[in-house]
Amino acid sequence: MRQSKEIGGKVCLMSNIDPINILLHGTPDEVAIHTRKIKEGVSFKGGHIFNTGEGIPRDTPEENVYAMIRVIKETD
After folding, report:
1. Is the dihedral of CA 12, 42, 20, 32 positive or negative?
2. Structure pTM?
């Protein structure tokens, strides 16, 4: 398991994707890139709660939400 002096070896972190600039206004590819970047930087053996920061805006394109979910579910 990857460890860090700051957070130790067994952790579960939460991180957020920008719900307005990325999720609402981005393309599915941009959403996937940002989601993957967050996941790679924060996930420790699945110990990660992925959040949108402020909820999912009402007018968010469905394909953006599905892009985010698809990347979150990808296994390493």
Report:
1. negative
2. 0.80
